[in-house]
Amino acid sequence: MVKIAIAGGSGHIASEVIDVLAATKKHEIMILSRKEPATAETRTGVSWVKTDYSEEKQLTKILEGVHTVLSFTVAHLDPSNTVQKMLVTASIAAGVKRFAPSEWSSASLEELPWYAPKGEMREYLANINKDKKVLEYTLFQPGMLTDYVAPEGTSKHLVPPELWMDFPNRRAITLDGKEGFVTLTTMKDVANIVARAIEYTGEWPVVGGIRGTDVSMSKLLEIGIKVRGGKPWDITALKLEDVQAGNLHTSWAPTFHDPNLPQEQIDMFSKVILRGCLLSSLTKSWVVSDDFNRLFPDHKFADLEEFLAEAWAGKPRRRWQQMGSSDGI
């Protein structure tokens, strides 16, 4: 049993991980939050501590006795990594053994400009351990969550965002004549691997790839057409040079929803995300390594097509639901 501190613990991905950790009944879990919990905490072994992450002394005191810190902070809401750097500083001062920065997505950051803070944090942590090991850490990288192309309710907390591969409405935006690739890993697999990593007594790998299924975009579209059935898909094929130039002429487009941003920024950010997601599949930014697969070879990962076929079985055509800023691609 160890004590775990979770930063950004009210987010969708964090909540899924916390549920699995709490279900083991092996750990003391402390959620760090700027606000009080919206509802009374009922999970065994889970408590909340209020902090604004601004005072090193206070945060160090909170983290005393903590074995592992998991961060789920949102990149675009902490672009300078102020919160995460304070977490690292306080973790070292408090004697925390392990730290996981807010990754939970792609391996490469190419064509994903909104993830720039993740790159800076990687360099920051590497520099801390440059001369000697000061803090053990890993970059949990599952690629894209399979649940993002599954119907809402597949996971308890996760709300699928709007994507260019729109399973709910049977439509997609593709790159004409180009083939992209991604790794898709289910939220359940990610949470279970994190739970096993907490109990792992060996040293964490710095790069912590969690590889579900590597899949081409054409194969993913094929699976979507198969599991959704019904009317033919509306497929918009864009020229690579148009996408690179930011000319995204489509009859529809996924929208990034964030109540913390004004509408004009949401519109701009939505275009940046669509462009980046299309191009990053070509650079294989979402294709991750299998580091944790090799550490836990007995873990059976969900089969992509079987998972989606079961998730979508009997589901009607549904519109997107808005996703808050606590998670996202």
UniProtKB/TrEMBL annotation:
<dbReference type="InterPro" id="IPR051609">
    <property type="entry name" value="NmrA/Isoflavone_reductase-like"/>
</dbReference>
<feature type="domain" description="NmrA-like">
    <location>
        <begin position="3"/>
        <end position="204"/>
    </location>
</feature>
<comment type="similarity">
    <text>Belongs to the NmrA-type oxidoreductase family. Isoflavone reductase subfamily.</text>
</comment>
<keyword id="KW-0560">Oxidoreductase</keyword>
<dbReference type="GO" id="GO:0016491">
    <property type="term" value="F:oxidoreductase activity"/>
</dbReference>
<protein>
    <submittedName>
        <fullName>NAD(P)-binding protein</fullName>
    </submittedName>
</protein>
<dbReference type="InterPro" id="IPR036291">
    <property type="entry name" value="NAD(P)-bd_dom_sf"/>
</dbReference>
<keyword id="KW-0521">NADP</keyword>
<dbReference type="InterPro" id="IPR008030">
    <property type="entry name" value="NmrA-like"/>
</dbReference>
<dbReference type="Pfam" id="PF05368">
    <property type="entry name" value="NmrA"/>
</dbReference>
